[in-house]
Design goal:
The chain is of the alpha+beta class. It has three domains: 102 residues, Beta Barrel (Elongation Factor Tu (Ef-tu), domain 3); 227 residues, no CATH class; 49 residues. Helix content is 52%, strand content 19%. The strands form two sheets. It has a seven-stranded antiparallel sheet with strand order 2-1-5-6-7-4-3, with helices on one face. A two-stranded antiparallel ribbon has the order 8-9. Strand 6 and strand 7 form a beta hairpin. Helix 3 runs antiparallel to helix 7 and helix 7 runs parallel beside helix 10. The longest helix is centred in the middle third of the chain and has 31 residues. About 1% of the residues have low confidence. This is DNA circularization protein. Pfam families: DNA_circ_N.
Length: 415
């Protein structure tokens, strides 16, 4: 049987192309064991390295642009696929290893390209380099540790101030700010029919823990009331946390429902606000982690959430380092541990985001192949019209999903 009868149409993942030349290579993995004073070597055959196919092919004519675009899209996909060899026939699990494209001015609507394929052999790794569940457990433990650490450092900080007679009035003002904040948060929770935590006595750490619990309940209630989307939910949480962060200064300025009869100044609220921001940052981080576990965020939204949390953390670190009063009390060791704990949690948050994004298919920008709706585009790209919602989220520039025109730019996953 000769080529006239057995030659087949070459294609990769359904993209058909005309072949100019094709080269097959088979190599074996050979290990040489050489010995002193002995000519030659013992050759140990470790098996084949797998089939390698190099194809020189072309696209030309009216369908040149669409065929080239389809092949370029498949070049972005990580998965191996079916290669139809003109002579050898079907070759499954072939991975595109390299692709080079050449355009020449003398040849219009014509592209020549070289494709190198290698046999893909999927195996189960002995060790998983990064475990998503391990990272989640790690960052949640870091958040819990930071909450306890903030309360402990605040307790020690207030203890040092109380030991200095010249700061007696300042201690009274700071205590009044904390108690007024408790009352303010309790009032807001009462309006939502939520029972606030109570800590009217005990250590300063208990007061800070009480404020953290009340803020956590307030944030949870706001999240329930904003189920539209993950981003809108985060914005509601962010507004609530920013309001709590601003509360110490507002209380010190007299904007409070409770008057304890103790003189307070904005200066008294500076350090209180730093500790409150540390508490709310732990809540912000835990909310971001929870949102990242969902499947409705695209890579840009994931990056926005993580960058926002990390920017907020950096602002807190800058405030701590610039606080003269804390430096005056020689809080270096305690503050160093606090800053390192905050940095570690944000680093873990970044790692989680990188893992999630890396597991997503790459994003592509493709042109709409016809006039129609985004439902039809989803079916054309993925053979699944239900991915319409995904395309809507990835294409905020599209104002009328039912009126897509040929050539419009469409953002979408490669697979």
């Amino acid at each position: 049987m000769a080529w006239a009868k057995s030659i087949q149409t070459a294609s990769f993942k359904g993209i058909v192309f005309d072949v100019l030349a094709i080269e097959d290579a088979v190599e074996r993995s050979i290990v040489e064991h050489q010995y002193a004073y002995s000519e030659g070597a013992d050759l140990e055959d470790m098996g084949s390295t797998g089939r390698e196919v190099t194809i020189t092919a072309i696209f030309y004519g009216d369908r040149y642009e669409s065929s080239l675009g389809g092949l370029l899209d498949y070049c972005e996909v990580r998965e191996s696929g079916l290669l139809v060899h003109p002579v050898m026939g079907r070759m499954p699990n072939m991975q595109l290893f390299s692709a080079r494209f050449r355009h020449e001015a003398d040849n219009v609507d014509y592209v020549e390209f070289d494709l190198i394929f290698k046999k893909a052999n999927r195996s189960t790794p002995l060790f998983e380099m990064t475990s998503m569940f391990g990272m989640l457990d790690n960052i949640l433990n870091q958040i819990d540790s930071m909450i306890n650490l903030v309360g402990g450092v605040y307790d020690g900080f207030m203890g040092k101030i109380r030991a200095i007679n010249t700061y007696k009035s300042r201690v009274r003002g700071m205590n009044a700010i904390v108690r007024s904040m408790q009352s303010e948060l309790s009032y807001q929770l009462g309006e939502l029919n939520i029972v606030p935590s109570s800590s009217s006595s005990g250590s300063d750490q208990n007061f800070m823990t009480s404020i953290h619990k009340d803020t956590q309940q307030l944030v949870t209630a706001k999240r329930v009331n904003n189920p539209i989307s993950s981003m809108s939910e985060y914005e509601a949480v962010k507004r609530e946390l920013n309001a709590v962060n601003a509360m110490p200064v507002k209380v010190a300025q007299g904007n409070s429902r409770v008057d304890l009869g103790v003189p307070m100044t904005v200066e008294d609220a500076k350090e209180i606000q730093i500790f409150i921001q540390l508490m709310t940052q732990s809540i912000r981080t835990s909310v971001v982690v929870d949102l990242l576990e969902r499947d409705d965020l695209n890579p840009n939204e994931i990056e926005t959430l993580v960058n926002d949390a990390r920017t907020s953390a950096q602002q807190i670190i800058d405030r701590i380092r610039k606080d003269d009063f804390m430096r005056e009390l020689n809080e270096y060791d305690e503050l160093f541990v606090l800053v390192e704990s905050l940095r570690a949690s944000q680093h873990s948050l970044k790692q989680i985001a990188e893992i999630i994004i890396s597991k997503r298919p790459p994003l592509l920008v493709r042109r709409a192949p016809f006039d129609g709706t985004l439902h039809q585009i989803a079916h054309h790209f993925y053979q699944d019209f239900k991915r319409y919602d995904e395309l809507v989220k990835l294409n905020p520039h599209i104002t009328h999903p039912s009126f897509i025109q040929t050539g419009d730019f469409i953002n979408g996953y490669a697979e």
